[in-house]
Design brief:
homodimer; 234 residues; mainly alpha; Arc Repressor Mutant, subunit A; Tetracycline Repressor, domain 2; 2 domains; 13 helices; 0% strand; DNA-binding
Chain lengths: 234, 234
DNA sequence: CTAGTCACTCGCACACTGTACGACAAACCC
DNA sequence: GGGTTTGTCGTACAGTGTGCGAGTGACTAG
């Protein structure tokens, strides 16, 4: 007996310093978070990994596939509480906050997520855990799905809009305060004869952008959950 | 008298066969609707208009600016009923349906709309009319803005998700039925040990995709509006 | 020890992108 | 008729995703 399977498998593991799909996905995630979709190119990604550009194509079929993988990774970051722990309503609230936080951490997501369906393992697992949560609430059959996707859609919608503003600020190269006051000034001129917009503008202009977004988010989510609660089977 | 001012101005009007910004925007809209963002290139657009590629840059500063213009055009297609006509609640319902229909007509929108803020004339006018509508409901000061953006976010969220599925089907080259049954089969395998997902799957599998989306949309919107209604000042 | 096979890397090339630049031309004003 | 404005467009540059085929190191069978 020259060598056991154990030593054999052990030796086969490192083999050669080599790229791995996980490595590539993680590097792509970093680039996306830092520079957005426009900042991600296969050549730059390869350079970051110290390899040739086309080497990536052995581990990943196309750039789009790579993005699919990164997207699924983000879904893995979302918490879905189990209904026993918190009850469905506060569970849904926590779920919403976790999903929103994830999207804000990955502001490139809205730009790519609507060009493909998400069927990766993390996405489906999220869906499954979501269904458990909303299933426990006691909705009628099909309302379980409707309830869950309502909440997800609402959260995506609000977070996406928030992301749009954030990227705009970042691209402008200004501070948030500068940008806000610029936009407000611009708006003031544009709507000189629009009393309704002026009122809204006055309401917004003294408030911090981030806290306003937070308040708006929980306001709408509360409303939606209120509405959902009345649909629960008595 | 050889020619009056009338004939002169008449002659001066066309001046020379020339591109116009409106023409370009409209052609870009057509291409986007038909082929999506990936199908729009300045060269192809110019060819469609029978002009040189770089000629477009006299009328439009960059491709991104052009897309901004097209986006604003789409906002112009959204109906916002006046509150006197329908009351705020059914007005909001109509608004939601109109916005959703607009997004479904322009499935490329989600892909580009979250990388920039929308401050064009049609976008701001939509915002203004929206504020009139929700302002008439009788919300407390800041809740007017919150209510409106909740509804918009929800509608965007649902419509975007719908768009994602539609594009996926289109890209697959299959019919909707083929695609659905393929995905269901794929899902069935993936979730062999997940009873919650299986229940959901069984619920979905017999239903037409489009009507399911419609039902889900009005279900969630109704819930949200129910919740909003309880926030109206008494 | 050699020959062969697999797993993986990578340089080159192709077609295509957005757009800066500067030369051109047609219409207008004086 | 000269000059200015308005508009067009060919060329060029730097960059993109990725197909192809040659190359290389590690392992296995004989």
């Amino acid at each position: 007996m020259k060598e056991s399977i154990w030593t054999r498998t052990r030796a086969a593991a490192p083999a050669r310093e080599t790229l791995s799909r996980e490595q590539i996905v993680q590097a792509a995630m970093e680039t996306l978070d830092a520079e957005g979709v426009a900042g991600l190119s296969m050549r730059k990604l390869a350079a970051k990994l110290g390899s040739g550009a086309t080497s990536l194509y052995w581990h990943v079929q196309t750039k789009d596939d790579l993005i699919d993988l990164v997207i699924d990774e983000t879904y893995g970051e979302v918490d879905v509480p189990e209904p026993e722990l918190a009850g469905w309503r506060s569970g849904a609230m926590l779920f919403g906050h976790s999903l929103r936080a994830m999207i804000l951490r990955h502001p490139w997501l809205p730009e790519v997520v609507y060009t493909r369906p998400s069927l990766g393992p993390n996405a489906t697992s999220l869906g499954s855990r979501g269904l458990v949560l909303f299933g426990a609430a006691g909705f009628a059959e099909r309302d379980v799905d409707f309830a869950m996707s309502s909440v997800m859609s609402y959260v995506f919608g609000t977070a996406n809009a928030e992301v749009a503003i954030r990227t705009a600020i970042q691209n402008s190269g200004q501070t948030t305060e500068e940008w806000v006051s610029d936009v407000l000034e611009q708006a003031r001129v544009a709507i000189a004869d629009d009393t309704e917009m002026q009122k809204s503008l006055r309401r917004r202009s003294n408030r911090d952008l981030a806290t306003m977004h937070n308040e708006a988010f929980v306001f709408g989510l509360d409303c939606l959950l209120d509405g959902l609660e009345t649909r629960v089977k008595k």
